[in-house]
Each structure stands twice: as structure tokens, then as C-alpha cells.
Amino acid sequence: MARSRTRDEILAAASRQFAESGYKGTSLQDIAAEVGCSKATLLYHFDGKDAILRELCAPAIAELKDLLDEVGAAPGPAAARKIAVEGFVELAMRHRREIQVIYGDLPALLLQPALRPVHQLTEQLHATLAGTSGTAQSRLSAKFVLAGLPAVIFACTEFDDATLRAALIATAGRALESL
Amino acid sequence: MARSRTRDEILAAASRQFAESGYKGTSLQDIAAEVGCSKATLLYHFDGKDAILRELCAPAIAELKDLLDEVGAAPGPAAARKIAVEGFVELAMRHRREIQVIYGDLPALLLQPALRPVHQLTEQLHATLAGTSGTAQSRLSAKFVLAGLPAVIFACTEFDDATLRAALIATAGRALESL
DNA sequence: CACAGAACTGGCCGATCGGTCAGGTTCTGA
DNA sequence: TCAGAACCTGACCGATCGGCCAGTTCTGTG
User: Fold this and answer.
1) Across residues B114-124, what is the average pLDDT?
2) Which nucleotide is nearest to A47 (CA to C1')?
């Protein structure tokens, strides 16, 4: 995979800047400046700005897909919801920046080719959290949780991971417990 | 105030496009095209792109300030929190698009001159929701609610306002009730 | 040492960005 | 009737965007 040191540094700088300034708000020149190389070097290692975003988000998107497979194999709706919440918290914490980039710039960023699969995956996750009842209240709580989790995970760097994980699962659980 | 019909149409188009595509993702040309006028006309009516954003968000920001004054005059922490949640839901619903623009693009958009006051106001709101205990859990829940509310309000156009308002207050209340 | 291929760069491209300006048109009140 | 205000526009500006390419430097191998 990671074939060159410069290539990794480009991904790292892009991750940081995309999360901080947004995809549109970050130029190739900005990334190149942080890496300490020329803009042409970025385009030597990647097929374009979109390709950088795609490769950056690929692991997170793949894990999101795995999570949904796991959710699909759950014995019942309650178990599915539990897996979805805890799994998403875990996933979002492992990929803080990417999740921030993806979920922080919706819906504008969803039009980006690199994030094509995300929309469907998010819809599935939403459906799981909302449960089978399909009431307005349940769908709304699900959206609430899906929006709140990434925002908090990115914003809260002050807590250690264990504390953050436990608190998020508790808060999300309370928000969803109307069902 | 609104001195011309074209001026209002510019604000309406800008509001819609900023919310849909983000501030950076919307060009003056895009707005002009929707209005059906030239780009120069936008800059005749406004001092620049930033001025459009400023005027667009001014009412929402003013109401946010009023809300915080009201919160400050509450008899106790519990009452303050109740006023904050219900007031913010009401405010965010009345200014769906603007709230989406402001809260949907953080933190990149906060650097925009037009949104200078927003950061401090948001901090105050956060402090109110978190309460005086200052525990990690309470601060985290507060951020969770502040991120979730705007996202849901913008995303959920399927429910009537009364349903939405009631459900949001209930969900936010549950998320916060660890205190 | 020679050489192939990977890594990297400066310079350039067309497009588009926000913004300016001179000038034309339309509205309005004395 | 007519001057001035209000309104609107096409043409243009410098800056910056993502992307491209020819050419140079680095590096590992026979």
C-alpha cells in the first residue's frame, strides 16, 4: 500500500487540512506547503485532488461497510441498534478526521465522486438506528444521533478515548431510548 | 430595510445556495444565475460576498443573542437549560437555512468576518447546556445536542413544525438528562 | 560505472474566483 | 420636462484554482 514516505505525508497533511478547513477550503498548494514539496508532486502521487480524498476516506468507508454487514447479521432489532451505535462510535473515533470531513460538510461533499458510496451507507445506518417502527420520533432521533456523534468526537480532544467512548454510547443511548 | 425586490431575491437565492452547497461552494455567479441578473448587480446591492452572508445571518445572530440574555435572567440552572433548549429549537426552526450554514460548516466558516460573534455566543449556549457541574459527561452531552439539533432541523422537512419541535425538545432533553 | 525507472520540480495552461469600473437604462419627484 | 437618483450591465482585473508536461535529480541494480 503506502509506497512512499512523501505519499504518506501528503495523506497526513491532507487529512489534517480537509478536517480543519473543509475540502473546498483546502487547495493543493496548501497541502504541498505543509508537506514541503511542490504541487506537482501531489499530482505525481495521486490522480487529482479527488483521488486524495478517496484514498483518505477509503479505510473508513470500508469499515463502515463492514459494520453494516455486522448489523445486518444481528439476531434482532435491539441487538442491531446496539451494534450500530457502539460500532459507529468506535469507527468514528478511529477515523476522527475522515469522519469529520465526510459528515462535517454534508450535503455539499456528498456530490464529490470520492464519497459516492457514503450516502447509501449512511442511509442504512440511519434505518438501523430508527428501527422498524418507522415513527417520526424514531427517525428523528436517529438523525440526531448520527449528526451529534461525529461532531462531538472531533470537537472533544480533552477526554481520553475510554471516557469519550463510554459517554458517547450513554448519551446516544439516552437520545434513542424513546422506542 | 429591504429596499429593493432584487435585493430580496439575492438574499433568498444566497440563503438557499449557501445552505445547500456551503459558503465556499457557492459563487457569486451561481447566485446571480438563480436570481436572473448579472454578478455585478450583486455587488451593486452588497459590499461583497461576505456582506451577503452577514446580512443573511444578522437576524438569526441577533435572536441568538436575545436568547442568551433571556437565559442569563433565568432563576436557576435548570430553568436556564430549559429556556436554552426550547429557545434554540424555536430559533433554529425559524432560521433553518442560516443555522445550517453557520453550524454546518464549522469550524472553517467561523473564520469568516461575518460570523465573528457566533463563536462566543455558541460558547455561552454550550456552557448553559452543560450546566455548572462541569463534568466531562455534561459538557459532552451539550456539544452533542448543539450539533444534533441544527442537523436534524435542516434534514427533516417531512414533519410539520409542531411535531418536529416537540420531538426535538424531547430528544435533546433525554440526551441531557444525565445531570 | 552505466543506466533504467522512480521521484520530483518549475513553468505553464484554461477556468473560475471575488471584485471594479465606466456607462447605459429606468424610475421619480420637483 | 428634465435632472438626478437608483438600478443594472458587459468588459475587464489580478489572484488563485486544479491540472498538465518536459525536463532534472535521485537511487537501486546489473
Assistant:
1) 72
2) D19
